[in-house]
Amino acid sequence: MKKLLFIIFLLTNFLMFGQGNSCSSATALVANGIFTCPAITSGTYQQVCFATVQGINSKWYKFAPTANGQVSISSNLPVNQDVDTRLSVMSGSCGTLTCVAANDNVNPNSFTNRLSSVFLAVQAGTTYYIQWDSRNDNRSFQFEYSFTANTCLPINQFAVYDPLYATSNEATLKWLNALGNPENYRVEWNNDFLPEQSPNNTSVVFTADNGASSIKTIDNLPAGANISYFISSVCGSAPNYTGQSSRRGPYNAFLAKNLPYSLTFEEEFPMEVFNDGFIGFNLFLTNDLTEPANYADGGAGRAAVTANSTQEFSNLWGYSRAINLVAGQQVTISFKSRLFSFSGTPSPMSLELKAGLSQNQSAQLNDIASFNLVSSDNYTTHSATFIAPATDVYYFGFHNNSFPGSNQTFAFFDTFNFTTTLSNPDYQRSGFSILPNPAHEFIKFSGTDVEITAVQIVDMNGRMIKHIDTFNSNDQIDISELSKGVYLVRITTENDQWNQKFLKI
Q1: How far apart are alpha carbons 289 and 194 in whole angstroms?
Q2: How many CA atoms lie within 13 A of 70 on its CB side?
Q3: Residue 35 to residues 28, 75, 120, 146, 202: CA-CA distances in angstroms?
Q4: pTM over 0.85
Q5: Closest by alpha carbon to 165, among 277, 283, 280?
Q6: Closest by alpha carbon to 453, among 473, 433, 477, 436?
Q7: Looking at residue 108, what is its pLDDT?
Q8: For 116, which of 103, 250, 274, 486 could close a Cys bridge (C-beta 3.0–4.6 Å)?
Q9: d(Cα 455, Cα 490) in Å, to the nearest integer?
């Protein structure tokens, strides 16, 4: 009888923790093909690529390539139709796994395709673990696994950082070097969000940096543009390259904008890029089928969202794209917020607005304003002003520093506007304005019918750069030969003299 009970115990545990139900019992994939993942109603979930949520189950697979190469794993197959999958790929030992690739939705902005795909470079002799989980759906589905041996390997999914810095026409990029340490990388870019095979791509080859990563600057970009770029490894030395990997991307870089600037998260580029350079907070696509329903400003649409904690102070950041500002330029920042909680009354939340020289918390050194967020019935508009202490490229930081709340609460943000005037009192009284400002080739004046008798352009060291004795109010001034920087324009009329700054870009 004891022996029978012991056998029953073993069978029960095998059924509960059988093949594919844990990392240690992962099903081995030894050939390319299409596989069926059973219903995910059992199996141990490990929090590695995604956060843990109570009640999630998983099915596990593993593969161990015998050569360096590339692996594709995808549930994005017609047979799966309305199934919602989520995929993690990890390496290491079952007790200390590291995430190497992950995907929840192939198209996060689609209500009809919630399937998952990853493409990654893999190293011979390393075991990789695949975890399909039931976070969104526990139904059975099919997935495709494909391995191709290759000696010139691409960078991996999580290899590319957000651009480190952007000016009006340059972007500084950073990525982790690929397996095998290729000697070079090719960066291809376009400003139309075109597919990677577009004939309009501009290509440049960089020598790889030593160490774990490479940092490179692409320049001569269209001023203030949104850039789509792709990275591929180029193996061997110039001019006799021995191979090029497949391209990875598209990735996005957002060059510095001049003011005024606005963001509603609704502009849809061909690639479905809605954040327009805003990073940090998540984007939420809402309509009458979601919860909360129609929670963007104006109803259905997109909004940025962050949440509080019920146990500790929040420390979450969202950052605007790069914005050009001139020393003394006054910026008015306005945005809308609204709270939501799934249960009970939303807890009050708080937000700090700051400015700095990068999309990084340590660079946000200029305090602007603090806001208390309390409204859940409707969107509330907030505003504050900032005067640039120096001419530079600025990023505005939105810091969720909320107290621990009694209820899990989400803060939605939408309709960001950045508008400007120069804070020079003489300029504000004069009625003159310089157009455009910043400027590249020409400037002209508007806003007055007073006769101008002379115009001087002076640099910030007080040196006169240009002097015009005879000037018509409708004339343009050629500034194409000036170096980039801030200049002072002295406008002389019959009865007065006015000063105004402008930025040459």
Answers
A1: 31
A2: 17
A3: 11, 10, 19, 11, 40
A4: no
A5: 277
A6: 473
A7: 67
A8: 103
A9: 6
Q: What string of DSSP letters covers 448-476?
A: --SPEEEEEEEETTS-EEEEESS--TT--
Which residues of the chain register pLDDT less than 50?
A: 1-2, 4-17, 423-429
The 8-class DSSP code of residue 15 comes to: H
The end-to-end CA distance of the chain, in Å, is: 88
Give me the pLDDT at residue 354, please.
97
Token pair for residue 72?
Answer: 């594709």
Sign, Cα dihedral of 51, 308, 108, 42: positive
pLDDT of residue 21: 93
Name beta bridge partners: 395. 356
In the 8-state DSSP scheme, what is residue 293? -
C-alpha to C-alpha distances, 417 to 72, 168, 252, 446, nearest whole angstrom = 42, 19, 22, 24
16 vs 19, 39, 262, 300, CA distance in Å?
9, 14, 54, 43
Name the helix (H) or strand (E) containing 425.
helix 425-430
Tokens representing 9 are: 């115990």
Q: What gap in Å lies between CA 192 and CA 202, rounded to an integer?
A: 12
The Cα 425–Cα 135 span in angstroms is 58
pLDDT in the model for residue 486: 79
Characterize 68-104 residue by residue with b for buried, 16 or more Cβ atoms within 10 angstroms of its Cβ, and e for exposed: bbbbebbbbeeebeebbbbbbbbbbebeebebbbbbb
Q: Hey, how many other C-beta atoms are within 10 angstroms of the C-beta on 317?
A: 20
- Please tell me the predicted confidence (pLDDT) of residue 428: 45
Structure tokens at 308: 């509080």
pLDDT at 431: 57
The whole-number pLDDT of residue 448 equals 60
Q: Residue 187's pLDDT is what? A: 95
Residues 6+ apart with CB under 8 A from 55: none
d(CA 490, CA 16): 82
Q: DSSP secondary-structure letter at 430?
A: H
- Tokens representing 448 are 């007055």
Q: Are 323 and 259 in contact (CB under 8 A)?
A: yes
**Three-class SS of 214-270:** EEEEECCCCCCCEEEEEEEEEECCCCCCCEECCCEEEEEEECCECCCEEECCCCCCC
**DSSP H helix total and E strand total for the chain:** 2, 35
Distance, CA of 79 to CA of 118 (rounded, Å): 18
pLDDT at 307: 94
Instruction: Tell me if 451 sits within 8 A of 494, measured CB to CB.
Output: yes
Amino acid at 205: V
